[in-house]
Amino acid sequence: MLLNYFKMQNEAGTDEAGRGCLAGPVTAAAVILPKDFRNEVLNDSKQLSEHKRNELKPIIEADSTSFAVAHVYPSEIDKINILNASFLAMHRSLEQLGTMPEHIIVDGNRFNRYKEIPHTCIIKGDSKYLSIAAASVLAKTFRDAYMEKIHEEYPMYNWKKNKGYPTKEHRAAIQKYGVTPYHRKSFQLLAPTLTLEL
């Protein structure tokens, strides 16, 4: 069973989604959960089906003390690199919380300090702590919804299905149709044997 708090009750968990994608934003969420929050289904978003994630999203939104989600778009990713963009997305989500946390727990092993709030990085934190798992679900569901929306604009890339990840189908579409404003130009958009005019 996932744990509710790491150190203290007023604690925000944060996580991101979309870091390895070729298109679309990197999206982060921050979530503060009440001390009595329990959910037997909630886990790392990668361990859950799309159906389960979509079921959990309104529960997290309704039951959390505070939550926020933020995108960092490809133009910024290309300027500051994906690692810094991931940190920026997490900072922006923390900034939007209605309650200022006393402590932040972060999925992964690296983080840029946010204000003067102490933080702890936890490897596989999204499968250990409820607030990080909740953040992972919100980041994933909000990002997926965004990718499904822009799919309507560029259906040939099938973002509705691949969500911008580097599938063979996605790379083949880039080779055939070129890049869009939603693609990350600093990423290797094609396999090493192929070239693309940017």
Automatic annotation (TrEMBL):
Subcellular localization, as worded in the UniProt entry? Cytoplasm
Which metal ions or organic cofactors does this protein require, according to UniProt? Mn(2+); Mg(2+)
Q: What does the sequence similarity comment in the record state about its family?
A: Belongs to the RNase HII family.
| Amino acids binding a divalent metal cation | 15-16, 107
Q: What Gene Ontology molecular function terms does this protein carry?
A: RNA-DNA hybrid ribonuclease activity
Q: What name has this protein been given in UniProt? A: Ribonuclease HII
Domain called RNase H type-2: residue spans = 9-198
- Cofactor, how bound (note): Manganese or magnesium. Binds 1 divalent metal ion per monomer in the absence of substrate. May bind a second metal ion after substrate binding.
The UniProt record lists the EC number as 3.1.26.4
Give the coiled coil ranges.
Answer: none
Q: Which reaction does it catalyse?
A: Endonucleolytic cleavage to 5'-phosphomonoester
Q: What class of enzyme is it?
A: hydrolase
List the Pfam families: RNase_HII
Keywords assigned = Cytoplasm, Endonuclease, Hydrolase, Manganese, Metal-binding, Nuclease
Q: Which InterPro entries match?
A: RNase_HII, RNase_HII/HIII, RNase_HII/HIII_dom, RNaseH-like_sf, RNaseH_sf
User: What function does the entry list?
Assistant: Endonuclease that specifically degrades the RNA of RNA-DNA hybrids.
